[in-house]
Amino acid sequence: MVRGMIYGLLAVILPTLVIAHPHSAASQTMRSCAGRPEIVNFLDKNFGEKLTAVGLINQNAILEVYAAESGTWTLIVTDVHGVSCILLSGDSWDTMPALPGIAT
Q1: Interatomic CA distance for residues 72 and 65, integer angstroms
Q2: What is the mean pLDDT of the segment spanning 5-12?
Q3: Residue 10 above 70 pLDDT?
Q4: How is residue 28 annotated by DSSP?
Q5: Is the pLDDT score of 83 beyond 70?
Q6: What are the E-state strand segments in the chain?
Q7: In what order do the strands lie in the sheet with 83-90?
Q8: Which sequence spans correspond to the domains of the chain?
Q9: What is the mean pLDDT of the chain?
Q10: What's this model's pTM, rounded to 2 decimal places?
């Protein structure tokens, strides 16, 4: 049930944020997509971000969250061809502990 609520929330928020981004989709794609190894290396070297969470979007893409101890975080989507695109990034990442009684 909690997982369904999270998926529903992401389904509403992510498209809204992408649409609300001030740059055109074409320029955003050109600036924020590359091969997954290049993106992962960039996040590690520049921000110290490591893979924190991953989820399957559909049969063609996965969602990955990279976060650093400093609190920076980046959300990327990787397709089956190994192309990753940065969707969002920010500060103050905090991992929430599992709540008692909720299956993980």
Answers
A1: 11
A2: 48
A3: no
A4: H
A5: yes
A6: 33-35, 50-58, 61-67, 73-79, 83-90
A7: 33-35, 83-90, 73-79, 61-67, 50-58
A8: 24-90
A9: 77
A10: 0.65
DSSP state of 1: -
Give the DSSP H or E segment for 102.
none
List C-alpha distances in Å: 34 to 25, 37, 45, 50: 15, 8, 16, 17
Give buried/exposed letters for 61-70 (b at 16+ CB in 10 A, else e). Answer: ebbbbbbbee
Write the DSSP symbol of residue 87: E
Q: Whats the size of the chain, residue-wise?
A: 104
Q: What is the DSSP letter of 7?
A: H
Q: State the Cα–Cα distance between residues 49 and 33, nearest whole angstrom.
A: 17
